[in-house]
Structures are given as structure tokens and as C-alpha cells.
Design goal:
By secondary structure, this protein is of the alpha/beta class. It contains 13 helices and nine strands.
């Protein structure tokens, strides 16, 4: 496999020039020059940051031209409900309450399945899991998935493992037993799926009981201290890696969802909770700071299109 930041991908003339500059600067300051891999890695990260900035500029331009304008040319930015996304705004979501009618909850969870499929949550999870499984040369693995809802992501893991000829066992933790019961018949068709109801902060899980611990679209429900506490627990429970994906707080996805949610949602509960979710979500630097304070080592947080955050923390005890 070709390393993404290798000299072949970077270009020999560019790399040579950078190495020359690097050596001169290092000699001037009495430091050890970086090797070719480190230099090309720095360039790759700079290019990624430049690409992300370009995407944001294009998205904000699109928003200013289209999403912020109402019929008749009215500017949405002058609307009294315009939002400030500089900091998180924590509010309870309807799904958290556990007292909504069964049919409304079922439709909401089915909407979340559709959103996970359309906007990359399944793809992100399987991409990282595949990399970890093959890196550690596993022929089988155990996953704990937290806040599983209707278990669509555990389904995706089991289906992928079957396609790869791998033996997988997935334990799906959901706080509300009623939500699991709404999909009881479907859950029963997956013999390697083990759904159970528990409070994740008081779950009787031994250290390193699972190869991987995953959590998708749940961290935005938590204040920073509780998010850090959960990351510490997940890190203890995982033998190889913790994988967390969630929304990124940003103007563009909020107003995109506000205008176009009737296309991919079917109930008012999804539309209300969706807007609240974007206001509660972390930004990249906030999630990384939370992970650092929780003591996670070998941890990366990446922005992924469209406006998703992906945290991967490899366990220090991994072989």
C-alpha cells in the first residue's frame, strides 16, 4: 500500500526543495532536521487544512446566496431566529425524554437510519473498523456499540463482517428498552447481535472486554465533563480502539437541515431534534480538548464531509 504522504505522492522536486529549506532552518536554530516522511507529512496536513478551509468558504458562499434567502429576497441572517454557533447550546431532545408515542419514536429512529446512510455515518464507521481489523490481523472481533437506537449501525457491522468472512459479535447498548422493543422482530434476525438496555455510566463492563467500542451521534447530547467521563470508560473497555462519530456544529448543515429536512425525514420529532442536535454538537478542537482532558493517548479527531467529526483513540494496551 502506498503511504498517502510518501515522496511519490508529494512530488520529488517539491520534496527536495522543502528538505533543503528544512535543513537550512534547522542548522540556523541548532536543531535536528526533519526526515523526508516528517516533511511530507507536514505538507499533507497543511493541504488538508487548506482543503477544509476552501470547502467552508464555498459552503458559506452557497449559504449566503441560497440558504439564507427566503422567497422575495428576504435575508435570513436578519431573521430574529438566526443562530450563533460560536458555542454549544445544550438542550434536551425529544428522543432523550423517553415519553414520546411509540409510532413517533419508531419513525424518528427510521429517519436516523436514513440519515446515517445518506450522510456517511455508516461509511465512516466501517472505514475505520476495516482499517483496525486488518491492521491487527483479526479473524474475529467483539464490538460494544453505545446508544444504538434501532441498531442500524450494529447491523452494518455484522453485514460487513459476514461479507469479509469474519466472525463478529456486536453488543448494542441502549438506555431505553422500549426503543429496542420497537424493533424486536428485526433484531432477532441477527444471531450475533446482543442488544441490552443499560445506563452507560453504570454499565457493568470489565476492562478490555471488547476489541472495539463505538458510539455514533450521542456525544452531542452530553456536557463536556460527561463526554470526557464516557471517553475514559470507553478507553478502558476497548482492547484496540475507541471510535466516535458525531455531527460538527456549523452554520451550513443547520440551515441546510432546516430547509431540506422534509426530503429525508418523516416526522416532526426528527425535524425538531435535528435542529437541536446541530446546536449542541462539538467542533473539532472542542472534542479534541475533551479527549485530551480525559487522558486519551494516540487520539485523533478529523473533520469529515459532510460536517462530521471522527474521533479514533487507539488503546495504549493494544498489541
Amino acid at each position: 500500500m502506498t503511504w498517502a504522504g510518501s515522496p511519490a505522492n508529494l512530488g520529488v522536486p517539491v520534496l527536495t526543495a522543502l528538505m533543503t529549506i528544512n535543513a537550512e532552518v534547522a542548522r540556523k536554530h541548532g536543531k535536528q532536521p526533519l526526515d523526508a516522511r516528517e516533511v511530507s507529512g507536514k505538507v499533507r496536513r497543511a493541504r488538508t487544512a487548506e482543503r477544509d478551509a476552501a470547502i467552508d468558504r464555498a459552503a458559506l458562499f452557497f449559504s449566503a446566496r441560497f440558504l439564507y434567502r427566503l422567497p422575495g429576497g428576504t435575508q435570513m441572517t436578519a431573521h430574529p431566529e438566526a443562530r450563533d454557533f460560536s458555542s454549544r447550546v445544550l438542550r434536551p431532545e425529544l428522543l432523550d425524554a423517553g415519553n414520546m408515542p411509540d409510532e413517533e419514536v419508531r419513525q424518528n429512529l427510521l429517519d436516523l437510519r436514513r440519515i446515517n446512510r445518506l450522510f456517511g455515518s455508516r461509511r465512516l464507521l466501517l472505514e475505520v473498523l476495516e482499517k483496525q481489523v486488518f491492521r491487527h490481523k483479526l479473524t474475529g472481533f467483539r464490538v460494544l456499540d453505545i446508544a444504538s437506537g434501532s441498531c442500524d449501525l450494529p447491523f452494518a457491522i455484522l453485514e460487513w463482517a459476514k461479507q469479509q468472512g469474519l466472525e463478529a459479535q456486536v453488543f448494542a447498548l441502549e438506555y431505553w428498552h422500549r426503543y429496542l422493543a420497537l424493533f424486536r422482530d428485526e433484531l432477532a434476525t441477527y444471531p450475533n447481535l446482543h442488544p441490552f438496555s443499560a445506563d452507560v455510566f453504570h454499565a457493568p463492563v470489565p476492562d478490555q472486554a471488547f476489541d472495539f467500542v463505538t458510539c455514533s451521534h450521542f456525544f452531542h447530547h452530553l456536557p463536556e465533563d460527561r463526554a470526557g467521563e464516557l471517553l475514559r470508560m470507553m478507553n478502558r473497555w476497548a482492547r484496540y480502539a475507541v471510535i466516535v462519530s458525531d455531527l460538527e456544529r456549523h452554520t451550513v448543515p443547520y440551515y441546510f437541515f432546516r430547509l431540506f429536512n422534509p426530503i429525508f425525514t418523516t416526522c416532526a420529532m426528527s425535524r425538531i431534534d435535528g435542529l437541536v442536535s446541530f446546536e449542541q454538537a462539538f467542533r473539532k478542537e472542542e472534542l479534541k480538548q475533551t479527549a485530551d482532558r480525559a487522558g486519551l493517548h494516540n487520539c485523533t479527531v478529523e473533520r469529515r464531509w459532510p460536517y462530521r467529526l471522527l474521533l479514533v483513540a487507539e488503546s495504549s494496551s493494544a498489541a
